[in-house]
Design brief:
- This protein is of the alpha+beta class.
- It has a single domain, classed as Orthogonal Bundle (Cytochrome p450).
- It has helices at residues 17-21, 23-33, 49-57, 66-72, 79-86, 93-103, 109-114, 116-130, 138-154, 161-171, 182-206, 215-224, 230-259, 263-271, 273-286, 356-373, and strands at 2-3, 37-40, 43-46, 62-63, 135-137, 290-296, 300-302, 305-307, 312-315, 374-379, 384-385, 390-391, 394-395, 398-403.
- Strands 2, 3, 4, 6, 9 and 12 form a six-stranded mixed beta sheet that branches.
- The protein is globular and about 60 Å long.
- Bound molecules: protoporphyrin IX containing FE.
- Protoporphyrin IX containing FE binds next to α13, β6 and α16.
Length: 404
């Protein structure tokens, strides 16, 4: 058996801007030097698909380390620091299960399917406004879709969208581990918290037991029956807004990034909604939107490597689907490929994405309508990249196209 600290490991510069541009080959190189582990300035990185699955299955030996994130950012005592320590992803054990049980009924595949007409209406309205332009930044366009759907799901008025959107854009960088962002993150969390508190006040003023018209009613009912506190309710609302915004926008933008080079696949998306789900799965396999971390709470020995309690492990959900042990020709984009090893873009374990069915339906419906209204998209300028740790993706994707 070897101690993890004694291993000669390849180094992944995950925190560097150049790394975010094309992380896949960096991981491929790292796997040549060690089968499943790399080092980084932020902790160890698990680089092998099966190792990610095996380690995440040891759920009782690890926890989410938001206290470390807050310390690294020097943000103890700030509004953002408080929120980082109190949202559902920061919870563990019984309290985490309590919040998950409250949310679960609103996040089933059946509920997600019921939202299809609403999602179609939102994307169609957006396309009415944006498609005639013939050229735009696709990332900016895509950012309006998930926030508008979420606001409708919780009954937030459209006037709230601009300030929420700007703040969620900032909060998407919460786990990018960049201390220079602390002030902006703090301001952003205050804006979203104020909006959440106002929404709760307004709804509580008219709510009566038995009202269950939307997601906010369900959460208010849980609070009224003693299932959670007012602070937890507001934090859940903030978290849902954050969790569904950046991730969904980034995946939709990554889809378009792939589609501009694949006119046949794209044209098929306009005809075939089911094919849109395959394009979504393949995009999330080849580049998902997140890389998150866990702190070991007890000693773990895996593949003959001893990792002491306190070891920080990063799980790169965004690129792990490109491990050649998990997919044949891992770098080729093939929506029809065999999915024996499904992508893990929604993570694994107790915190696995609760919104995944909503996200899947929303993105497939969105892509279907976009492909019908925005034809022959071409790249019309260089795109940038968001920081790799945390929520990753494209920053600015200029395209031109023929409006249909
Ligand atoms: C393509 C879009 C999305 C992606 C890629 C995504 C990805 C993820 C990932 C990777 C996690 C787990 C993070 C970790 O374990 O460290 C997560 C958790 C979560 N996501 Fe999503 N997400 C998406 C959309 C959504 C949407 C639309 C919602 C809500 C409407 C949502 C709500 C949540 C919640 C509540 C959690 C925390 C679950 C828990 O702690 O038990 N997500 N998501």
């Amino acid at each position: 058996m070897q101690e993890i600290s004694q291993l000669e490991l390849p180094h992944l510069a995950m925190e560097e801007a150049w790394f975010a541009k094309d992380p896949g080959p960096q991981f491929a190189e790292a796997r040549k030097e060690h089968a499943w582990l790399a080092s980084s300035s932020l902790g160890y990185v698990v680089t092998n698909y099966q190792a990610v699955r095996d380690l995440m299955a040891m759920k009782d030996a690890m926890r989410t380390p938001f206290d470390h994130t807050v310390d690294l950012m020097g943000a103890r005592g700030t509004a953002w620091g408080r929120f980082q320590l109190s949202h559902i992803l920061a919870y563990s054990g019984r309290d985490h299960q309590r919040l998950r049980d409250i949310l679960a009924p609103a996040f089933t595949p059946r509920r997600a399917n019921q939202h299809r007409p609403l999602m179609r209406e939102v994307i169609s309205d957006l396309l009415d406004e944006w498609a005639p332009k013939g050229a735009f930044d696709f990332e900016e366009f895509a950012s309006h879709f998930p926030i508008t759907v979420m606001c409708k799901l919780i009954g937030a008025p459209p006037e709230m969208i601009p300030s929420l959107r700007a703040s969620l854009e900032t909060l998407g960088l919460s786990v990018s581990m960049d201390p220079s962002l602390t002030t902006a993150l703090d301001e952003a969390v205050r804006v979203v918290d104020d909006a959440a508190q106002a929404l709760i006040d307004e709804r509580e003023a008219v709510w009566k037991p038995g009202d269950e018209n939307d997601l906010l009613d369900l959460l208010i009912e849980a609070k009224a029956s003693g299932g959670m506190t007012r602070r937890e309710l507001a934090d859940l609302l903030i978290f849902l807004l954050v969790a569904g915004y950046d991730t969904s926008k980034n995946i939709l933008t990554l889809i378009m990034y792939e589609m501009v080079d694949r006119p046949e696949d794209y044209a098929r998306c306009a005809e075939d909604l089911e094919f849109c789900s395959k394009v979504l799965d393949e995009t999330m396999r080849i580049h998902g939107a997140t890389t998150t971390n866990r702190l070991l709470t007890e000693d773990v020995t895996y593949r003959d490597v001893h990792m002491p309690a306190g070891t920080m492990l990063w799980f790169p959900w965004s690129v792990i689907g490109r491990d050649p042990a998990a997919a044949e020709n891992p770098d080729s984009f093939d929506p029809g490929r065999d999915r024996t090893n499904p992508h893990v873009g929604f993570a694994l374990g107790p915190h696995m994405c609760l919104g995944q069915f909503i996200a899947r339906v929303q993105l497939a419906e969105g892509l279907h309508q976009i492909a019908r209204r925005i034809t022959r998209p071409r790249s019309s300028g260089p795109q940038g990249w968001r920081p790799f740790p945390g929520v990753w993706g494209i920053r600015g994707l200029p395209i031109e196209f023929e409006p249909a």
